[in-house]
Amino acid sequence: MKKVIKNNASIMSLILAIIFLIIGAVMFTRPEFIVLVFSYVMGGIIILFGVYNCIKNYVEVKKDNNTSSKDMIIGITSIVIGLIFIFLANVIEAVIRLVIGGYILFIGLNRFINALYIKKKDSRFIALLIISLILMGGGLYTILEANLAFQTMGIVIMIYAILEIIGYIFNISIIKKNDVEVKDAILIEEKKD
Known about the structure:
Elements: E1 2-6, H1 11-29, H2 31-63, H3 70-87, H4 89-117, H5 123-144, H6 150-177, E2 185-190
Antiparallel strand pairs: 1-2
């Protein structure tokens, strides 16, 4: 029976960490701008989708009277949701905070589980354990702090991204040092029956 853990040294995790670093830096320097831009862009896209569905349903009803009004209902609902995005930016901030905090907490929990599979005497155990605890703390703080300003969220996101980049470099150096070819997982322990 083989025990494997997810490889933290994938290019996709590095790219996501760099994207989060950029988002965190922008959130730290211009938090109010981020909320407004995100709310207006998302609201506009959702409203355009709603208008498209309304027009599409109108044209289909003109061609055939037996056409369902499902697209019209979806269109009107989308327009209302788009207006909510535009006029309720503070609610959007809370949702973004919960999504980002949840994601960071999830990554921290994954790192913690991966650390538990490593032998306690291994030097990587302490490093991965500390990184996972910091990520879990940052995720929980982002979720639970009701009045968390976007600047603080930007700092938390930048710390997360830096920890991810350090983890990537750390794992790549271990893989190169041990001359191991890794695709999706790292073999931790192999038990023979």
